[in-house]
Write a structure and sequence with these properties.
Layout (H helix, E strand, L loop, with lengths): L1 H30 L24 H39 L20 E4 L2 E4 L2 E2 L13 E6 L4 H4 L7 E5 L2 E2 L5 H10 L5 E7 L2 E7 L12 E5 L1
Antiparallel strand pairs: 1-2, 2-3, 4-5, 4-9, 5-6, 5-7, 7-8
């Protein structure tokens, strides 16, 4: 029953992560409103006094809460990834097991035939279905935590809170901000295939890194998960 327990545990963790992401997005949007302090902007005015146009206490509370949520999100994501890898290994191991007359893998729970989506991988019974995609393809590795409304990223469809699953040739596994920046620079003026996870759904976009009136070629900021 290991596979079934892992499946249930993974689903529970994904629900918890979704709740964290929803709360994070609310805080990010609140801090990033026009005229707002942003996620790390200065809370002092040009003369060194606390800014009078914002609620300093509320901003600090939001930033502290966001830091806690990010840490919790990272820990849960790591556990989800470990579970998916284990489920993936179970699927690979099942290929070498003998198949009975009914076509089921011997020793599996024949009555547990429910199918659920976990990170866009199909889990069937105690094992991962052979129809699933590479587990790495479905794991987000970065979050859009800042984006300029007039930026190339925004104009091409990226939104605040989007989780990046694929950016050109960059996928989960060995990701860093320099690699993302290099991918954008290498493809300047060319469409880059981007897959994002938005409100539980995978969305395909084409984003073209290009020079615009603001900084960078995309006008957004990615935070590695």
């Amino acid at each position: 029953m290991v596979g079934t327990n892992l499946k249930a545990d993974t689903m529970s963790l994904m629900d918890k992560r979704s709740a964290l992401e929803a709360e994070m997005n609310v805080i990010i949007e609140r801090l990033s409103q026009p005229g707002g302090p942003g996620l790390s902007g200065n809370l002092l005015d040009s003369e060194g006094f606390p800014r009078a146009d914002i609620d300093i206490h509320a901003v600090r509370a939001d930033r502290n809460r966001l830091a806690v949520l990010r840490n919790d999100h990272r820990d849960i994501t790591e556990q989800i990834n470990q579970n998916i890898q284990l489920l993936h290994s179970v699927r690979l191991a099942s290929k070498s097991l003998p198949v009975g007359e009914s076509g089921n893998v011997e020793g599996s729970n024949a009555q547990d035939t429910s199918v659920v989506n976990v990170g866009h991988n199909v889990l069937m019974g105690n094992t991962v279905s052979a129809m699933d995609v590479d587990v790495n393809v479905s794991i987000p590795f970065a979050l859009v935590d800042e984006i300029n409304e007039a930026s190339p990223a925004a104009e091409d469809g990226l939104q605040l809170g989007d989780q990046i699953v694929k950016f050109g040739n960059v996928e989960y596994g060995d990701v860093s901000l320099p690699k993302l920046a290099s991918e954008a620079q290498t493809n300047q003026g060319q469409g880059v295939s981007v897959i994002v996870l938005r409100q539980g759904a995978l969305i395909n976009l084409t984003v073209t890194p290009r020079v615009w009136q603001g900084r960078g070629l995309l006008g957004c900021h990615f935070r590695i998960l």
